[in-house]
Amino acid sequence: MTVTAVRKDPESRTLTLEAEFDASAERVWELWADPRQLERWWGPPTYPATMTSHDLRPGGRVEYHMTGPEGDQPRGFWDVDEVQPPHRLVFRDGFANDDGTPNTELPMTTDRVTIQEIGGGKTRMSIESEFPTVEAMEQLAAMGVEEGMTEALGQIDAILAETASAR
Amino acid sequence: MVVPMQIARDHDRIFGALGDATRRDIVRRAIDGEEGVAQLASHYPMSFAAVQKHVAVLERAGLVHKHRIGRRKVIRTNLEGLRTARRLLDRYEELWRERVDRMDQLLKEAPKEAHR
C-alpha cells in the first residue's frame, strides 16, 4: 500500500493523505519540481495535464491545462507560497478561465506537501488539502450554482430532499 | 484501479464544467427542466452553437441530460449529478490516491525514462 493514512476533517475542512515511496526525498521532490514529470501524474490518463508555465518559487505561478477525450481543456494554476526543496511545498490550487486568467468565482484549495525520509530507503509524503471556508466547500460541492443568491443553495437542498423522498 | 480512475475523471469533468459562469447558470435554469437548447440560448448574449457547446460539456460531466417531452427535447439538471458534486471531499481523497499511484509508478521506472 502506497497510501498509508487518510484523514478527513470536515471541521478544519482538510483532507490529509500520507503515502510512502521506495525512493529518496530528492527523487520524490523531482515529481513536483520537474514539469515533465509533474504532468505525468497530475491528471488522469484520460485528462492528461500539460504544464505551460512552472515557476516553483515563493510568489511564482504554475499554469496548466488538461485535455479531455473531447478536446475540452479545463485550465488551472497554482500560486506558490513556500518552496523548501526537497521537503516542503505549499501552493494554492485554483481554476482558470479559458484565457488562462484565474477564475475568481471558484474557490482555491491550499495544498501543503511535506516530504521526509523515514529510513530503509523510504520516503513519506504527506499532502494536506484545505478548503478556504465551509462556504467554499459548499460552493464547490453544491456547485456555486448562484452568485450572491444563497437561497438557491436552499432551493437545491429542497429539491434534493423532495426527490429523495419521492423515490 | 478502474473505479478510482473513473472518479478522478468525473472530478475533472465536474470542476471543468462548473468553472464557467454560463454553465453554472444553465445548470440552475435546467433544474426546472422546461427549456430546450434554443430557449436556453435566448438567455445569453451568445450564439446557439456556443450554448449548445456548453450544454454538451455539462452533459459529459453528468450534470444535465436531455429529456424528451412529446416532440420537444428539454435540458434537465441531473440531480444525481448534484449529489455527486456534494461528495467532493471524498472525491478529493480518490483524486489524490490516484495521483499517488501514478507517482509510485513513475518512481519505479528507470531514471532515464522518467527524464525523457
Secondary structure layout:
The complex is a heterodimer of chains A (about 170) and B (about 120).
Chain A: E1 3-9, E2 14-21, H1 25-33, H2 35-38, E3 49-54, E4 61-66, E5 75-84, E6 88-96, E7 109-119, E8 122-130, H3 134-142, H4 151-166
Antiparallel strand pairs in A: 1-2, 2-8, 3-4, 4-5, 5-6, 6-7, 7-8
Chain B: H1 2-18, H2 21-29, H3 37-41, H4 48-60, E1 64-69, E2 72-77, H5 79-86, H6 88-108, H7 111-114
Antiparallel strand pairs in B: 1-2
Helix pairs in contact in B: 1-4, 1-6, 2-4
Q: Please state the structural category of chain A.
A: alpha+beta
Indicate the percent of residues in helices of chain B: 55-70%
The beta-strand count of chain B equals 2
Shape of chain A: globular
* CA distance, first residue to last residue of chain B: 25 Å
CATH superfamily of the largest domain in chain A: START domain
The name of the CATH architecture of the largest domain in chain A is: 2-Layer Sandwich
Largest sheet of chain A: 8 strands, antiparallel
- Could you estimate the helical fraction of the residues of chain A in percent? 10-25%
Strand order of the largest sheet of chain B: 1-2
Overall pLDDT level of chain B: 78
Biggest interface reads: A-B, 56 and 47 residues
Order of helical and strand elements of chain A: EEHHEEEEEEHH
The number of helical elements of chain A comes to: 4
What is the SS-derived class of chain B? mainly alpha
CATH superfamily of chain B: Winged helix-like DNA-binding domain superfamily/Winged helix DNA-binding domain
